[in-house]
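Section: protein folds

Sequence with per-residue C-alpha cells
===
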Amino acid sequence: MTEFTEIQYIKGIGPKRAQVLQKSGLATVIDLMNYFPRRYLDRRNIVSLDNLQADEEVTVIGRIEAAGIRHARKKIFYIVINDEKSILEAVWFNYAEYYKNVFKVGEWVSLSGKVNYYRGFQMTHPDYDKLGDGDYSNLLNTGKIIPVYPGNESLKRAYITSNTFF
C-alpha cells in the first residue's frame, strides 16, 4: 500500500464508503493522512458528581441506578448515574428504543458532555463509554484527548463520524 492507494482498498472501508468519502475530498491514503482534526476534546480530567457546575464540559463516571423511557411528544430515554457522592441524569431525545438496549441498570458508565441544570444536574446527548463492571481497559471517550474531525451530512448518513477516524 502506498500513499496513492485508493481508500476503498483499506480494510473496513470498501467501495460504498469510499464513494461517500471521495465526495468529501478523501480519495487516497495521502488524503486521509492530511485530514486533520478541526479541534480536540480534553477528556482526561474526570470530575466527581458532587463537584458539577452548570455550563461546564466534563467527564464523569458512575453506576447506572435507573434507566427508562419517558413519553412526551416523542420518546425520551434517560439514565441516572451515581458515584456514591451524588447523582446525574443523562437524556437522549432521539433513538430511545436503541439506547434502551445499550444501557443496563447496575453497570458502570462514563459520560462526557455539557452539564445543565433542569430539576437537578443533567447531560443531554452525552458521549459515553460502557464500563460494565468497572473495566477501564477499552475506553473510547474517557481519559484521553479526543480528536474531532470535520464532517457533513453525507458522512453522517453513511455512519462515518469522528470515531471512525481514530
Q: What stands out?
A: Helices lie at 14-23, 29-33, 96-102, 153-157.
